[in-house]
Design goal:
By secondary structure, this protein is mainly β. It has helices at residues 88-92, 114-117; strands at 3-4, 28-29, 35-37, 41-46, 52-59, 61-66, 71-82, 94-95, 100-103, 106-110, 121-124.
Length: 127
């Protein structure tokens, strides 16, 4: 079943909206990919205009920014320690934007959307 990113058929009151056009290809959405810790694995998806979007499925490394030195370095992900999106994501080691990761460089907060970009950027948290 296709996921549409359009107005629903029903109002909040239960009444119906009148359809003003048919379904369009550009309004099509996709299921969410829950990014997990594991061997680096990505999936390529065709985007609007023929662009290729790389979606992360599993990730083992993170690009960590150290705010003191203003430099990036790669660090290995050990586990997910906090996730404001969903408390169950911590137990399942699911990575989303805003998640706090335990890395080999220390705790880091994810600043990008790995399910839509194919990699993880994070900022090192001060102790």
């Amino acid at each position: 079943m296709a996921r549409l990113q359009e107005r629903p058929k029903r109002k909040n009151t239960g009444g119906r909206y009148i359809a003003y056009r048919k379904k369009r290809f550009h309004a099509l959405g996709r299921d969410q990919i829950e990014v997990r810790i594991g061997a680096g694995k990505t999936q390529s998806v065709r985007g609007c205009g023929g662009n290729i979007k790389s979606r992360a499925i599993t990730v083992k490394e993170v690009n960590v920014l150290d705010l003191k030195t203003k430099k990036f370095k790669k660090a290995e992900i050990l586990s997910v320690s906090d996730n404001k999106a969903n408390q169950h994501y911590i137990r399942r080691n699911t990575i989303t934007k805003g998640a706090v990761l335990e890395t080999s460089a220390g705790s880091a907060k994810v600043t990008n959307r790995p399910g839509q970009e194919g990699y993880i950027n994070a900022v090192l948290l001060e102790k």
